[in-house]
Design goal:
The complex is a heterodimer of chains A (203) and B (398). By secondary structure, chain A is mainly alpha-helical. Chain A has 10 helices and no strands. The two termini of chain A are 31 Å apart. The chains are: A mainly alpha (203), B alpha+beta (398).
Chain lengths: 203, 398
């Protein structure tokens, strides 16, 4: 968890140009995992995905003078990561049987790219907000989706009642909804109702 | 990531507040229905895939990754960062050198000792265009505009690249032009059919000012990267000093045919080509490289490895290394000192002389092409090799 409150967009951009380490941290902490998730969708390994994303961050940081807004930085990171992932596949001859489409399609015309980027953003945002939930609430959510436990199992493990587990889940849904509506563009929210439903329905 | 998304975002915000009117509800619904892909994404996000995805996210150690990257990006001295300008210099600042079996990470620094007077500058854009009548035009410092007229085809120079505009010139004979790139230069050309050609130092291409007939033929020497315009009715053929031919339909490939290299290498990036030697040929798939050995092998060398019609095909060519020249870099991965020095000879227009025999060193790494010669040599000197510069001659000493 960061030791200081996050910088707002204007200050963040200013500090990025200055080369401030903490600005770097903020961007990296927020976006790294979701970019790695996105990279893996190109059928490369977890290790390759992480390496490719780290390289993208490095390339961005060394050219950070040229960026004036966060969406531009985010686009750059996704596009650079996509191209590097395709490179990994090409180098190891692991491209799917119609390689030319993937290679020759410019990013602007690649529907796979846009959807996968959005998917990564949605899931990344949800995950990050889950991490910010209050203690018990967070634990219930993690036990549900990460460990796949059902309500009864969670109740037993945490030493709380079954109805407590259910109410913590409901609380999580409303807290997540608020947090996500606040911090992230509303485009993600089209999926949220169904997503949260499924996410926290447990068994 | 585009304005359409911004618009949908607004609709969604209103949707959340329950403030959409019927027309807006309709628009939102249409967007959802608009592509199967959107629906599929929705499904994806609400199944087992979702759990797997979140599990993946949970296992990523962001902190560790961040610290690893920061140790490369940020040095101990604060305040140094500001000087990292947007240049390749910093991005390519580590070269791994494998010398005599031991690996050493080497930091590329500007070494003041080697910066003598008259530091040799890197190559730049330039070319010599030879017209059909023998007239030669130096393209180095010409400004944009019409350079020549060849029997109705206009030759235009724009942004450091030459283009042929047939402009309805079905009249007249077919004439040939030659573009020659001397050492220390590189250039770009667009042929009359729209084919894009990038030429490395010490290369040339001879081509007609208009393509007519059954096929499009060009002749090349040196190193050239092609992006051939599609034309199924007129196959594109590249002739390499009558030693090999490449037959092409719309595609992207690199030819390395320097006389002083061991083989003629054709690497296919996309599309398909047939590499032909003395009437027989092999088809390449993207990522493959065809090698045709030059007959003047070193004494004692036997006819080698199984090859088809004298053409050896390798899979998984290192495309980054092969295309580095076009992307403003030297890529020395797996290169011997001889390989490295030959590339430097062409780009810096120098003569390389070896005092003793060539030391056995293998290099790895990339450095930008736009730095002066002393910068490059300073990096290479971190291994057990030393250089002395005398005018335009570089002497390699052990």
């Amino acid at each position: 968890m960061p030791a200081h409150p996050p910088y707002g967009e204007k200050e963040l951009l200013f500090r990025i140009k200055e080369g401030d380490e903490r600005a770097f941290d903020q961007l990296f902490n927020e976006w790294y995992a979701r970019l790695a998730l996105f990279a893996r969708r190109y059928a490369i390994s977890a290790a390759e995905a992480e390496e490719v994303v780290s390289e993208s961050f490095m390339k961005f940081w060394l050219q950070r003078d040229g960026f004036d807004a966060l969406p531009g930085i985010r686009s750059f990171l996704y596009i650079t990561t996509r191209n590097a992932a395709l490179n990994v596949l090409r180098k190891n001859n692991r491209l799917p049987t119609t390689p030319l489409d993937a290679l020759e399609t410019p990013v602007e015309e690649d529907p796979f790219f846009e959807l996968e980027a959005i998917r990564a953003e949605v899931l990344g945002a949800v995950f990050r907000e889950i991490e910010n939930l209050p203690g018990k609430c967070r634990q219930v959510v993690l036990l549900t989706y990460r460990d796949g436990l059902n309500t009864a199992q969670i109740a037993a493990l945490m030493g709380i009642s079954v109805s407590n587990v259910t109410s913590q889940r409901a609380r999580a849904i409303s807290l997540l909804r608020i947090a996500l509506a606040d911090h992230y563009p509303a485009i993600y929210l089209i999926w949220l109702p169904a997503l949260l439903e499924r996410l926290l329905s447990g068994a | 990531m585009n304005s359409r998304i911004e618009n949908i975002s607004l609709l969604l915000k209103l949707h959340l507040k329950g403030a959409l009117n019927d027309a807006q509800k309709q628009e939102l619904e249409e967007w959802r229905r608009l592509s199967e892909a959107n629906e599929k994404l929705l499904e994806d996000l609400t199944g087992k895939d979702l759990h797997d995805a979140l599990h993946q996210l949970a296992t990523i150690d962001t902190d560790a990754a961040r610290e690893r990257l920061k140790s490369r990006l940020f040095t101990a001295k604060k305040g140094r960062i500001a000087r990292f300008r947007r240049s390749w210099w910093a991005a390519a600042s580590i070269i791994l050198v494998l010398a005599m079996g031991t690996a050493t990470w080497v930091a590329l620094k500007r070494s003041p000792e080697l910066v003598k007077t008259a530091d040799i500058q890197p190559g730049r854009k330039g070319a010599i265009l030879t017209l059909a009548d023998g007239t030669q035009i130096l393209l180095d410092s010409l400004h944009s505009g019409v350079v020549a007229n060849q029997h109705g085809a206009r030759v235009l120079l724009r942004d450091g690249s030459l283009a042929y505009d047939p402009a309805g010139s079905a009249d007249g004979e077919v004439v040939y032009n030659t573009m020659t790139i001397p050492k220390g230069r590189q250039f770009q050309l667009v042929l009359p059919d729209g084919t894009k050609v990038w030429l490395n130092a010490a290369s040339s291409i001879r081509y007609p000012t208009v393509f007519t007939g059954k096929e499009r033929r060009v002749e090349v020497t040196g190193e050239i990267y092609f992006e051939v315009a599609k034309n199924a009715k007129m196959p594109f053929r590249v002739n390499i000093s009558s030693k090999a031919e490449i037959e092409v339909l719309g595609t992207h490939f690199n030819v390395n045919a320097y006389e002083n290299e061991e083989s003629i290498n054709t690497t296919l990036l996309a599309g398909s080509v047939r590499v032909i030697r003395e009437q027989s040929g092999v088809m390449l798939r993207p990522g493959q490289q065809a090698q045709i050995a030059r007959s003047s092998s070193r004494p004692g060398q036997q006819a080698q490895i199984a090859s088809l019609h004298g053409i050896k095909v390798i899979d998984h060519a290192d495309v980054d290394r092969i295309m580095a020249w076009k992307n403003g870099l030297f890529n020395f991965n797996g290169a011997s000192l001889g390989d490295v020095m030959r590339q430097l000879e062409r780009w810096y227009e120098i003569e390389v002389v070896y005092e003793k025999e060539i030391p056995d060193i293998t290099f790895w790494g990339e450095i930008p092409k736009d730095i002066s010669l002393s910068g490059v040599l300073a990096a290479l000197e971190k291994t057990d090799v030393h250089f002395r510069i005398e005018g335009r001659k570089v002497i390699v000493m052990p």
